[in-house]
């Protein structure tokens, strides 16, 4: 990494800003047909400092990040990088100016090894295929040290990247900061796929970058992470810059109010469920083995929201995928309303009225080439058909109702892939709940969405439980489960190691148990 940081001038006039400007955005606008994604934003970033960029879904956060990185082109205005002779106009110029962008969806080549992915940008230069040039050693001590610095020191540099989980893929992408020359680093929702145990690795990475004089832009919905990492916070709303504040002089309530234009009402705890010992559980799992799940047993009662917490590799996602037919069980039993069910495929689970919300909505949650109407009705089409023929009028009417019920921005003909993360998630939730499932599994249901959309999702989950359905919420966010669930199970090494009552536990209890519990 590199920096052009210069010593500060002690002779500047009192009150003058002594921070070295790394980039300047003036009058930045980005318009799409019918949408003003950014509308006249003025913003500066400073060397050795972290700028948080916050806003509700569709506020323009990621658009600003893409413009700064040259990934997208401005409609009006300009962005200048200190030391670069003219405003950046494309990604190549931004890279030459020293901008490194880390995306929410990490750039990982599945057929490359872990080591090759660390050095991907160096390999891209082609130096390793020139016979007179020294080849990059992707299995040397430096590579292993780079991986250790982002919490991946246990990985072999020679294993293929396709075997890594979402959090590991993101950390592997972030490892490239140590082997890439840059003076501005953009983290665009890069913590959305990582779990809490990796956040300290990211903090350490950011601290190293700050000491090197790098200007860091952190785009995130997770306000606790924003306050832990950032020196300043810029709030966008409807494409405009509302305010830029020093992180030490504000709090989450003020930032939230600036983001959505009003104070966000606190979400009430879920209504307690009946403790009738004779009540038949909606779902009963006994000695389940599948994936990394190793002898897991639990019940979910009617109207209950059960949380499943664990770190990467704990087995929580294996449980979610096995009880929904995404992954066949090796052994054990699954009972729905007291009747044992066989779930060899996702189709079998759907037929039994078991719904699964994937943690990766962009890859598995919706069809990218479908519009909102097609995606929302996709699973429930059989209920809208007679003799195998879909009633188009009924489908269109119901989809319009769903868009209103779930407050989805965009019409029935809007492509789901063009929506913000929160609105995409609402489409996916609507799609599955339209099947009227008896049991719902939500794997990381609020990953990468803002506080407003998050509250909407929570209200939907509460409403499902209030109808007597069973709900399992899998999350790497301890705080989320404590506020949302009736009970929380903690997993470690494929086993359930503890159970908590959210009214008598805190985040520290869950994290410590997941990290240090002795089997």
UniProtKB/TrEMBL annotation:
Top-level taxonomic group: Bacteria
Residue ranges annotated for the ABC transporter domain, each copy included: 16-263, 278-518
Name of the protein in its database record: Sugar ABC transporter ATP-binding protein
A Pfam entry, by short name: ABC_tran
Organism for this UniProt entry: Microlunatus aurantiacus
Gene Ontology MF term list: ATP binding
Keywords of this entry: ATP-binding, Nucleotide-binding, Repeat, Transport
PROSITE patterns: ABC_TRANSPORTER_1, ABC_TRANSPORTER_2
Keyword check for ATP-binding: yes
Keyword Transferase included in the entry's annotation: no
Family matches, as InterPro entries: AAA+_ATPase, ABC_carbohydrate_import_ATPase, ABC_transporter-like_ATP-bd, ABC_transporter-like_CS, P-loop_NTPase
